[in-house]
Specification:
6-stranded mixed β-sheet, about 25% strand, globular
Amino acid sequence: MAGFIAKFDLKVAALARKARAAMRQRFPTAVELVYDGYNALAIGYSTTGRTSDVIVSVAVYSTGVNLYFMYGRSLPDPDHLLQGSGKQGAFIRFDSPAVLDDPRVEALIRAAIDDAETPLPRSGSGRTIVRWVSKKQRPRSAARLKGSRSKIAAGLRR
């Protein structure tokens, strides 16, 4: 897992490590599913190991980290914390580890756990499964991403 996170800028990588540690502590029996995709590194916490049973994910982008709720649109969100325009999923920007200390975020996590079709195992330890690694990926560093956008723009101007 360290190699996946090490691709990111130091600030984003540090935040991703903290988010992952907090989620592992919060979900000790969950199966941690890893998808190192084209746009982002996604680390999902599933009750069964199936993607459809993911409760919450940590999504790491070159520009930051999101706490993603797979079925966020079905959760009660009286404070309108959830962002995104998806019909099913929604996210909260993870600007600091303090986000997880917010009682409103904890209430969303509890609601997502309660909403899970299959409950989390009561005992045992979780495991990590790397499900997919994209052969082609966007730059994981914000500086490199900016440089690649400049190259693309220059190519379009020709």
